[in-house]
């Protein structure tokens, strides 16, 4: 018993410096993320774009057995062209919408009065007090401002992607050579492979699901004759990358605009129930079925990560919250001292492939 007590006291003494060092490193890391956002955000976007390109090129090779250089070229062309189109729409058409949003805000109160007879005074009062009080102009300017900023950095992101693709194979060799031992090199390679596989699956599946959702929503918007249909479709695509609240926002904004644009409440109901049902079905059935247990992240962690990255990097951080947290979870799972933290971050306490590898 005395030896066991002594071990426990020694373990407690050793744990305090470790906890202190983790807190110091964590605090400095948060400060560095906030201070270096201008440099780190384009680099992070480039890394995720690179992951998507690799996923597309690998799929292209599997389907066509094309040479690697041709598959990489096809992946780069498709992804960068799609990224440019998204940023261009948000930077041009959405900018025009921001200039006119004050007009929409003025007319929204009138639109709310039109639905008083349908939903009752109590619901109307709730809508007026909670929705009109939201500064839509600020939200729209922040969203378009972030997209415009990324559009301005498009050339820099493209250069990052080009050099990342060029050093894709050489970088792994350099990691092994830089490691102090073959075991450390193998561990680093395992971490990189785990991050790459998880991110490729997440980014690829999420891009496909978001594109399907945006295309169906765009068809609904065009059939209704909703103004700025392209902008709402692009925002639907982008907002689906924001966990939990993104799909709600993707329905709320076009629904509110339909109240102002149309005299009848029909288009509003079509968007709310049509697009809302679509988002619900995809978010609760298709999304989990395709992603499966590949992420294995706690639901609370997803919301916490969304709050943290949005606070540090703004709206762009909201889009990047899940991929960045996946990277942190995988890295923690491969570091013995931080493995308990990774278990707490996971959905069910199991770390998937990592456990299998260690047995």
**Are there runs of 5+ residues with pLDDT below 50, and where?**
9-14, 353-359
Average pLDDT, all residues: 75
Total beta strands: 0
Instruction: Give the helix level as a range of percent.
Output: over 70%
Radius of gyration: 24 Å
Reported for the largest beta sheet, the result is: none
Oligomer: single chain
Classify the secondary structure makeup into a structural class. Answer: mainly alpha
- Shape from CA axes? globular
Beta-strand percent range: under 5%
From N to C, what is the helix and strand string? HHHHHHHHHHHHHHH
Report the total helices. 15
How far apart lie the N and C ends? 31 Å
Subcellular location: Membrane
Pfam families: AI-2E_transport (PF01594)
Transmembrane segments: 39-56, 68-90, 150-171, 202-221, 233-256, 268-286, 306-332
GO cellular component, one term: membrane
